[in-house]
Specification:
The protein is mainly beta and 118 residues long. It has strands spanning 3-7, 10-13, 18-25, 34-39, 46-51, 57-59, 67-72, 77-82, 91-99, 104-108, 112-117.
């Protein structure tokens, strides 16, 4: 059974950086597309970034140039490097496993909170 666990969230000031990690448990991590989404209370979950098994990536326009998604197949881990954070980046960040470049799979983590203050 596939599971993912996020870590690395925290409270930072605007302009600072954070790196989120998503550790995958199960077999064949290298064939899974991975993604990061974010959600604020009362709103729908939104795509932040996704990466395929072939390292194709896609980003929401709001994070292009500031966030970078990556994966390390040897560690079964996906990362989200977030630079120049803005207050509007404050959200619960969730990891997703499976799916395609543009669509999520069925496996979700519980999330890690990122809070950006001015």
């Amino acid at each position: 059974q596939v599971q993912v666990v996020e870590s690395g969230g925290g409270s930072v000031r605007a302009g600072e950086s954070l790196t989120l990690s998503c550790v995958f448990s199960g077999v064949a991590f290298d064939i899974y597309a991975m993604g990061w989404y974010r959600q604020v209370p009362g709103k729908q979950r939104k795509l932040v970034a996704r990466i395929t098994r072939n390292y194709q990536t896609t980003y929401h326009d709001n994070v292009k140039g500031r966030f970078t998604i990556s994966r390390d197949n040897t560690k079964k881990t996906a990362y989200l490097q977030m630079n120049n954070l803005k207050t509007e980046d404050t959200a619960l960040y969730l990891c997703n496993a499976g799916g395609t470049l543009t669509s999520p799979g069925n496996t979700w983590g519980v999330g890690t909170q990122v809070t950006v203050s001015s």
